[in-house]
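Action item from last week, closing it out:
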Amino acid sequence: MEEYLNDAATPKDWKYYFVKYDTMRIGSYGKYYWKNVSKEQNPYEIIMMNTETNLNGKNWDVFLYTLYHCSDLAGKLSLGDYAYSGDKLKLVGTDIEMECLNDKFILSQNDEIKKYPIPQSENWIDIEDRIEFAKQLIRELTV
């Protein structure tokens, strides 16, 4: 597994993240939902369901959930339990909210919205690990 994760040629598609980050695989039922139609059209917009059959129970964007559980960001973030209903990652002590889309992170503060494109190939596969990319953004905002 380490060879796979450390190989520069390994595509950082959604499967890469599920291998690398344990927190993306802790849902009670192993059920996921791809927002906005399908995993082919929106491969990184993934909701981890905490119910067996529907989105009525707790659910999280897998990338925001992983960021929330990063030990080096402990105490800096809060996360609601209903991504399907629009819950975003919040930076504690600020009014900044973060959401993760296929090709970018969006940070909103009051009425101001900033987009941070995630480096991707021409095939829309991440070139840079989006979790590390987001952690750097968060560090810059919480200094």
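Closing note: Strands lie at 31-34, 46-49, 59-61, 77-79, 89-91, 96-100, 104-109, 112-117.
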